[in-house]
Specification:
The protein is an alpha+beta fold. Helix content is about 45%, strand content about 10%.
């Protein structure tokens, strides 16, 4: 097949797929057709190759291991993305604020901050989110499901990441140090919150009296004054 024959026939696209099946799958993207469906979760795909990769999620196979931390992943492309964490490379830069990221999807998620678009609404409390994964993660709060339990104090959490952050309390580790006063913290979040003291930033403003605060917990206590609960 010559190069001209491989070009996408769409008037708005000049992509040149490598193989016959790529060409067919690519054209489905224009038509909106997704003829390949997963038998397990019913998710649909435009290309057969994509559903084959997807099925590894359900199989539990993770044949690709990181040679630095031994973490295993189901796809080679995911391994390559993961390894950027160890290399220190952050090749994806935001064109608004120049913040850099390891992964392309992290950059895309971040860019919603600048767009102010929040198209995903929680069907329980109507809170709006910029990405669907953020909304799905939020909805766990309403379910009351807290499947992650600390093996030291039995405290339970909605998210695995929250459990991991909590476990630093029991470990005694304080790996995050303030670069101004050298005070150490068990969690990165706590260190960043502490650094507002040195920077003078007061990012939390009361929408009633406009008084500002360095900590979110402080503004929560303050608003009780206006509500009459204090």
């Amino acid at each position: 097949m010559c190069a001209e024959d491989r070009l996408c026939p769409s008037a708005v696209c000049s992509k040149e797929p490598n193989h016959q099946y790529d060409q067919e799958g690519h054209q489905y993207e224009h038509s909106g057709q997704r003829p390949y469906a997963c038998d397990v979760c019913k998710k649909t795909f435009t290309e057969k190759s994509r559903i084959k990769r997807h099925l590894r999620i359900h199989s539990g196979l993770r044949p690709h291991a990181c040679d630095v931390c031994n973490k295993t992943l189901n796809l080679k492309c995911n391994l390559k993305q993961h390894q950027l964490i160890h290399s220190g490379q952050r090749p994806y830069a935001c064109d608004v604020c120049n913040r850099t990221f390891n992964h392309k999807w992290s950059l895309k998620k971040h860019q919603h901050i600048h767009s102010d678009q929040r198209p995903y609404a929680c069907d329980v409390c109507k809170r709006m989110f910029s990405t669907k994964p953020d909304m799905n993660r939020h909805q766990v709060i309403h379910s009351g499901h807290r499947p992650y339990a600390c093996d030291v104090c039995n405290k339970t959490f909605n998210y695995k990441s929250a459990l991991k952050r909590h476990q630093f309390i029991h470990s005694g580790q304080h790996p995050y140090a303030c670069d101004v006063c050298n005070k150490t913290f068990s969690r990165k979040f706590d260190m960043k919150r502490h650094q507002f003291i040195h920077s003078g930033q007061r990012p939390y403003a009361c929408d009633v009296c406009n008084k500002t605060f360095t900590q979110k917990s402080d503004i929560k206590k303050h608003v009780l004054i206006h509500s009459g609960h204090c």
